[in-house]
């Protein structure tokens, strides 16, 4: 995840208590990206596959041009039954995101605004073609403390 969004999500979970630090693992290409997130006492790694094996909900918060590469790293670890993939990549259409993963992968795209970093603002949720209502509720619960969330269904 990019440092800013990783910190915002970590801060939200830390202050709302809807997840324990032991339930969160994050990855980044180098350890220098972990200095702020480690204050939340979550597990860190440089291995995206390790995060995929650990997680049920995978947040892909990287630049749009990096999504395909990250997907190629982890797609062999993705189980359509176990994993929900949440993309935070700006300006990348849902169809493109879904095309990088195995057929049937449950996916949601989120577009948070900057006010989310202080527990205000909103998040737009775009439900992928295989995501369920329960998946949408899971993602909404992650953003507990954000003023509002809007769901928009594609397809």
TrEMBL record:
Pfam families: F420_oxidored. Residues 1-29 are annotated as: Disordered. GO terms for molecular function: pyrroline-5-carboxylate reductase activity. Residues 17-90 form the Pyrroline-5-carboxylate reductase catalytic N-terminal domain. Keywords: Oxidoreductase. Residues 9-29 have a biased composition (Polar residues). One of its GO terms (biological process) is L-proline biosynthetic process. Belongs to the pyrroline-5-carboxylate reductase family. This is Putative pyrroline-5-carboxylate reductase 3-like isoform X1. It comes from Stichopus japonicus (Sea cucumber).
